[in-house]
Amino acid sequence: MRKIILNLTVSLDGYIEGPNGEYDWCFTDQDYGMSEFLAQTDAVFCGRKSYELLIEAGDEILAEKNKYVFSSSLNKVYDGWILVKDVQGETIQSILAKPGKNIWLFGGSQLTDHFIKLGLLDEMIISIHPLLLGDGTPLFRKMKERLFMKLVDAKIYDSGLAQLTYRIP
């Protein structure tokens, strides 16, 4: 069965964006395993803010992927994207039931929290950048309960980036 895998970068103090929504701190000097990861996926799930970021940056890397944006505030999306207004387990389960590769959950923090709450997240690949932002948007906002995970892979790059892969039992 397909897996939903969160793959995001965070600062060492746990922020996915700076206090003004900036991402200029994310390393872009190498691939960091992203090409290999993308080859194992055929769909991407994201929230409204992540969707807007992808559109602004250019979503060419997702050209061959099924692209879903989960939003209650958007009324339409660009061609090639599917708007999902109902962020309930049944909608997501129907997408998961279709044959295909894994699904990349590309945030944001609210959607990530929701997927965890619904028990739909299978793995997390967290790339920790060696810097402290001090403020911004935390990766996890509204976690009410503990979530135990199993570390299944760890990579350390020369840049100081640590990439940790966790499986959620």
Number of helices: 4
* CATH class bucket: Alpha Beta
Tell me the Rg in angstroms: 15 Å
Give the end-to-end Cα distance, rounded to a whole number of Å: 15 Å
Which ranges are low-confidence, i.e. pLDDT below 50, for 5 or more consecutive residues? none
Question: Biggest sheet: strands, sense, closure?
Answer: 8 strands, mixed
CATH T-level topology: Dihydrofolate Reductase, subunit A
What does this structure look like?
- With 169 residues, this protein is an alpha/beta fold.
- The protein has a single domain, classed as Dihydrofolate Reductase, subunit A.
- The protein is built from four helices and ten strands, in the order ββαβαββαβαββββ.
- It has helices spanning 34-39, 48-57, 89-97, 109-118; strands at residues 4-11, 15-17, 41-47, 66-70, 81-84, 102-105, 123-129, 137-138, 150-156, 162-167.
- The strands form two sheets. The protein has an eight-stranded mixed sheet with strand order 5-4-3-6-1-7-10-9.
- A hairpin with a 5-residue loop joins strand 9 (150-156) and strand 10.
- The longest helix has 10 residues, at 48-57.
- The protein is globular.
- The protein starts with a strand and ends with a strand.
- The model has no long low-confidence stretch (mean pLDDT 91).
